Amino acid sequence: MPRITVKKNTVFESYVIYPAVHHRLKSFNFTSNALANQEKYCTDSFENVNIVVSKVKAGGSYDEIFHSLMQDQACNTIPISHSLVSQLLHRFKDDWKSALGVFKWAESHKTYTPLSDSYETMLDILGKMKQMEKMMSLVEQMNRHHLVTIGGIAKVMRRLCGAGKWEDAVIVFDDLHRFGLEKNTESMNLLLDTLCKENKVEQARKIFLELKSHIPPSAHTFNIFVHSWCKVKRVDEAHWTIQEMKGYGYSPSVITYSTIIKSYCRQSNFSKAYKMLDEMQAQNCPPNVVTFTTIMCYLTKNDDFNEALRIPEKMKLFGCKPDTLFYSTLIHTLAKAGRVQEAVDVFEVKMPSVGVLPNTSSYNTMIAMFCHHGLDQEAINVLKSLQGSQLCRPDIRSFNPLLKMCFRKGKTDVLLGVLVDEIVTPDNSSQYPYML
């Protein structure tokens, strides 16, 4: 298979590695005694993490951190495990020097060799912090241990593209054979998707044209392009991609069509969105509830409430049943249109009558509506109902409208007191500590 044409040489550099042997974690027997041992293990593990963290000096180089840990007596008595390394890397996910120093310290122990996912976490940390040379050197180190996976390569390509080095991402794809991986439909799609997510859709298209005679595309390949062309507001190319997709024997899915419909809605071109609904029906690919929810949402954003409120009837014509998200959007539309009682009827009557259960978002929409219209007691009643629900729990968005209304109305002495009583209860005082 020919290599993809890019004007680059290589992205791999040499890197100092520390030898280690493979290690497997022992599984626990979950008997009553083993559960106690497991609890003690977790406590010990947490303490060990804190010991290592306390020994890491912020601002030092990764080599200084490595040598400091190697020379520390307390650290050298800690048993190295995959769990310990995973927790440490999570602690230092935004500090690549500390993460790399700790990682090198862990892998230097003869009784421990990092697993693939620990290496991949380290790759992601280095890539996120734009340490590309070190990231690529770590890939080489993984390759020597035969630990490179397609998941790790996906992370590397994504970070390279995110740093503006899309040509290097292509070179990594070209070198897959060196890691014992295949250039196939899956890996090609990973590359194309990575490029497209960084708005390099034209470059992705050129690469696809080079590869398609050697690697068969899948339906997902074309959906990547449909989504990406729509993202950069080139809907005509998305339509051409659908025709190309059909030429390969793949039928566009409801997701494919709905992506284009969403793009038209973003442009407020609802006439074309409706035409696409008819095309879907003609292609025996009827729209689903997500399609109609999207249209109604964008009509509401355009303040076209009358047209938005016709969507439920249009949906019936297509034999599509509403779900919780659809009803939440409908309530929001009615609220913005000032039709408060109709919104209440949807929430209290319509949804229960068809067996659609509300979620936290549904309750939050009702709370926001009542707050917007100055109906403070009704909003608090909905919050109480949400707190008593067996199905869902309040979140930060449940309280924000109420708190804003308190200050807007100047009722911080009475209304805020009631609200604090609702927040600070034995059941949820620990759940919302940030509210106090």
Report on this structure:
By secondary structure, the protein is mostly helical. Among the domains are: 219-328, Serine Threonine Protein Phosphatase 5, Tetratricopeptide repeat; 358-436, no CATH class. It contains 24 helices and no strands. Mean pLDDT is 87; it is low at 13-43 and 426-436.
Give the helices and strands, then pairings.
Layout: H1 32-55, H2 62-70, H3 73-76, H4 82-91, H5 96-107, H6 116-128, H7 132-144, H8 150-162, H9 166-174, H10 185-197, H11 201-211, H12 219-231, H13 235-247, H14 254-266, H15 270-282, H16 289-301, H17 305-308, H18 311-317, H19 324-336, H20 340-353, H21 360-372, H22 376-387, H23 396-409, H24 415-423
Helix pairs in contact: 1-4, 2-5, 4-5, 4-6, 6-7, 6-8, 8-9, 8-10, 9-10, 10-11, 10-12, 12-13, 12-14, 13-14, 14-15, 14-16, 16-19, 19-20, 19-21, 20-21, 21-22, 21-23, 22-23, 23-24
